[in-house]
## 1
Amino acid sequence: MPLSNAERQRRYRQRLKARASGAAVVEQAQAAVERAIRALWDYHERPSPSGIAWSDIDGCRTLEAYRSELERSPTNLLQACRAFVPDFSGLTPDEALAVAEVIAIADVLRLSSPTRVPADVLFPPSHG
């Protein structure tokens, strides 16, 4: 049964309230990690700069195998993300943003200075 407009608005207000209170921070971090894993996988699916498939290099032929490799060590995901610093070359703007978000979360959790991400990497000037 479709939701009424009032019910949609009520749920939207609940999500805004949870976000403002910090109650949804874990879910937001989990979503950011999922976006980053997906971005890294999308990059992985493109040929490497040498033209060799990444799966021939690292042996990961499915998203599940790639995820398992990232989960094998607590630092693997962050190392994979940081491999694109400083210029995020090879990533689309959306992929770069997803990777940069995970780096930013890690920096906050380690109480370290934020990693600088050039604005033009994440928001390239439009060509037109």
## 2
Amino acid sequence: MQRNTYILIGAGYISSAQAKSIASNYLNSKSDYKGLGAGTPSLKGSVYYVPMVVTVEGQHSVGTVLGDVLVDAKTGKVLGTETVDITTDEKVRNPP
């Protein structure tokens, strides 16, 4: 298993570029997320929300955002994903 070292910035947080890289590596390591890439992160509290963006035409158009990868801004750990249930419009959190 590869170990990554991340440089902490500001209030002890990793950079948004690092969060995007972590999310991208996470998506690439999971077969369920083939055809998805990492978008531009947004910081909410101490969690980066990194959009899961369609990169390969299929069931959804390229550029469609299907949810977010949640990355802890202090540790760089993936906390899981968050998607929206299309029938209830409720946010659904999935473990990593």
